[in-house]
Design a protein that fits this description.
single chain; Endonuclease, Chain A; 3 domains
Length: 473
């Protein structure tokens, strides 16, 4: 019996190592998986099988998911091009605008009104108000949709709108919203909501869906009002009754031509979740009207994208900087390429401020994030720790352009998740967002190189362990 387990361990470990060598996407990540497979008998290869296999290189993933989504873009690109209202981008942002156009097939448009929503309570008051005034349809998409006070407010509101003849469609990530199975989902279905999970976790498709999640947060009302950002439907944003206290986050309310770009992302995801066709028409994509003076461009990336869209967006923004960069993120674990780009910018004389929460909902993520701080501090990056748990994903360049959305600065958002950011080419709004973050950049909250370098050895050890796992997060 002992020989059986020894031979099994050898065969399974060899399979894992050979597969990693053939299909590994990044050397550091591959090394981490090889070591995990060797030193964690059975558990290491099992984790690699579910979370590490680069299924984008396998035929069945391309045929069953990725290729279909790419074909969808190709078939509908003409509609996108005809109905968009691109602005004249003969400016300093031209390269960034064109990068997003080629990566996401979404144009920057002028004539938009952007309202900055600074926390969960503010966000949901605006969302509920927009739904109350809906006349035709309400479309919602969330990574986390769970029961609680917000859910209990949402259900009767949607029921009343459906009784008025308003169409309601909801899609949710089956992993992030795993509690929606059963009674909560049935509750929404019974009032007339068309609700579907995205990438459902089932036995037949487990291998090519478990590690690819839909992390987007989108609400569209009548094709005229759109919401996107980092806020999920969970009471963590409105109550202090959890270990981290009330979560802080930034969200956006959009009006104008950019709403159609945001809506196309929902329509595409909804089609693949429900197989319902017919949403790419004037009823759901009405002719855009100008509502304000802001230029906005939606960024859409995912595992089906040929490029690492979110990572390229962030790096391209940093290289535009002439004076300053501000980054706020709860999971700052971006990998070697981004860190090196960040150091180059800092050593070039650009002031960089990194704002992260002192507390985290993941100890591995926290220590992995802290493992990068010493090298960043050594090149002059200013790092500030917030007492509140901030879930915001923000990048501001020269207080002139800002990105707000769902994309974190980590491997998962860069490679594995479907994400959506809003790029705002508006100096006034960028300054407003920067000002809202400046209050956390106080001397007492700042880390300093000498004192941080002298941190306890056990903390450095924990950071080293977590850094070892960072490519797998």
């Amino acid at each position: 019996m002992q020989n059986f387990w020894i031979y099994s361990y050898i065969l399974i470990t060899l399979w894992a190592v050979v597969t990693i060598i053939f299909y590994g996407s990044r050397p550091t990540k591959s090394i981490a998986w090889v070591l995990a497979s060797i030193f964690l008998p059975f558990l290491g290869p099992l984790c690699y099988y579910f979370f590490g296999v680069n299924r984008k290189k396998f035929k069945f993933f391309r045929l069953r998911h990725s290729l279909k989504r790419q074909l969808y873009d190709g078939e509908n690109r003409e509609i996108i091009a005809v109905e968009s209202t691109p602005f004249d981008h003969e400016s300093g942002f031209k390269k960034l605008v064109q990068l997003i156009e080629k990566n996401s097939f979404l144009y920057a448009s002028s004539g938009n009104k952007v309202t900055l929503l600074k926390d969960g309570e503010d966000t949901f008051e605006h969302i509920f108000s927009a739904i109350e005034n809906a006349h035709h349809f309400v479309h919602m998409q969330y990574f986390i949709l769970e029961q609680g006070q917000l859910f209990n407010r949402l259900c009767p509101l949607l029921k009343s709108k459906i009784e008025e003849g308003v169409e309601v469609r909801i899609i949710y990530d089956s992993f992030g919203s795993y509690k929606m199975r059963g009674k909560p989902k049935k509750q929404l279905q019974e009032i007339g909501v068309k609700i579907y999970p995205i990438l459902p976790i089932r036995f037949g498709n487990l291998l090519y869906t478990l590690n690819y999640r839909n992390h987007r947060k989108i609400v569209i009302v009548d094709g005229k009002i759109g919401f996107t950002g980092g806020v999920n439907v969970t009471d963590k944003y409105i109550t202090y009754d959890n270990p981290l206290g009330k979560w802080e986050d930034l969200h956006l309310m959009l009006k104008g031509p950019v709403v159609n770009s945001l809506h196309r992302i929902f329509i595409k995801d909804y089609f693949f979740a429900s197989k319902e066709e017919g949403l790419l028409n004037k009823k759901y994509l009405p002719k855009p009207t100008e509502e304000g003076n802001s230029i906005v461009q939606i960024v859409s990336g995912g595992p089906d994208s040929p490029q690492s869209v979110i990572m390229q967006q962030y790096i391209a923004m940093m290289h535009l900087a002439e004076k300053s960069i501000t980054i706020a993120n709860p999971y700052f674990i971006p990998g070697i390429a981004f860190l090196e780009a960040m150091k180059i910018v800092a050593l070039s004389g650009i002031k960089i401020k990194l704002i992260v929460p002192k507390k985290s909902d993941s100890l591995i993520a926290k220590y992995s994030m802290f493992s990068n701080f010493e090298s960043l501090l050594s090149v002059g990056v200013e790092i500030y720790l917030r007492n509140e748990f901030s879930h915001s994903k923000v990048l501001i360049v020269d207080d002139s352009i800002a990105s707000v959305g769902s994309g974190n600065f980590d491997y998962r958002s860069f490679e594995h998740n479907y994400e959506t950011n809003a790029l705002i080419y508006d100096e006034k709004l960028a300054q407003s967002i920067a000002k809202s973050l400046d209050k956390y950049c106080k001397p007492l909250a700042q880390l300093h190189f000498d004192s941080f370098k002298a941190r306890p050895r056990y903390q450095k050890f924990l950071e080293g362990l977590a850094k070892f796992m960072s490519p797998l997060l």
